[in-house]
Specification:
Elements (H helix, E strand, L loop, with lengths): L12 E5 L6 H11 L4 E3 L2 E3 L13 E3 L2 H9 L3 E7 L2 E6 H10 L3 E5 L2 H10 L4 E7 L3 H11 L4 H19 L6 E4 L3 H17 L6
The structure holds guanosine-5'-diphosphate (GDP) and adenosine-5'-diphosphate.
EC number: 2.7.4.8
Catalytic activity: GMP + ATP = GDP + ADP
Keywords: ATP-binding, Kinase, Nucleotide-binding, Transferase
Length: 205
């Protein structure tokens, strides 16, 4: 076995959850850029419109609501959720592509409802990490600073964030919590957790 290859244990999926604007996408992008051989992103489906710079099939599969509802009915999704007035979901195909075809650890960026469904389903061996903001004010500042949402959408996301933070603080789905204050420190911790998922190792905090 070559150095850096996963050991005899199979890589687990890495479930990344946390409120909108907390930095999930930033941390995940950095991980994928640094370790493209080890980690692959599960490209979700969404009914929301693409933001500037987002590409079909890379960030999301951008789909029409009716098509997504039909695919959900046809059983194509491992999990799905209505988040901030849009539908988001992880197809079986996207997870299979990363785990079985690419043989990498599959990174899922999903909301709390999705995390709960994956946890209860139990068919995916996973490590769960919840990303926390240093404070609600900082979260709001990041969301506004990103400049990708309308004021109405920001308000919806902040409302959802309150429930997400309570959820992250009070359940056992997540093996780890990372406070994203300094990006360097948060990324170092996040990477360490991701590598635990990659090696399929036992989780100890
Ligand atoms: N359940 C579920 N949630 C998802 C999925 N993809 C993204 N999300 C979540 O949907 C929420 C909104 O995502 P997005 O519109 O990209 O906005 P952002 O989180 O503010 O960058 C976030 O909490 C994501 O974690 C998915 O496939 N399933
Ligand atoms: N540690 C950090 N310090 C300051 N700004 C950050 C930090 N992490 C992320 N950001 C910024 O916050 C905004 C939201 O991050 P993003 O990764 O889009 O969050 P999410 O994917 O959780 O919605 C982005 O503009 C990003 O550059």
């Amino acid at each position: 076995m070559k150095e850096g290859e996963a050991g005899s244990r199979r890589p687990k999926a890495l479930l990344v959850c946390g409120p909108s604007g907390v930095g999930k996408g930033t941390l995940i992008k950095r991980l994928l850029d640094e370790h493209p051989d080890k980690f692959g992103f599960s490209c979700s489906h969404t009914t929301r419109k693409p933001r500037e710079g987002e590409a079909e099939g890379t960030h999301y599969h951008f789909v029409e609501r009716d098509d997504m509802l039909k695919d959900i009915e046809d059983g194509k999704f491992l999990e799905f959720a209505h988040v901030s007035s849009n539908i988001y979901g992880t197809s079986f195909a996207s997870v299979k592509k990363v785990i079985e075809e690419q043989k990498k650890c599959c990174v899922l960026d999903i909301d709390m409802q999705g995390a709960e469904q994956v946890h209860e389903d139990g068919s995916i061996d996973k490590v769960g990490v919840f990303i926390m903001p240093p404070s609600f004010e900082v979260l709001e500042g990041r969301l506004r600073g990103r400049g990708t949402e309308s004021e109405k959408d920001i308000q919806i996301r902040l409302e959802t964030a309150k429930a997400e933070l309570e959820f992250g603080n009070s359940n056992s789905i997540f093996d780890f919590k990372v406070v994203n204050e300094s990006l360097e420190e948060a990324y170092a911790k996040f990477k360490e957790i991701a590598l635990i998922a990659y090696t399929g190792g036992a989780v100890s905090q």
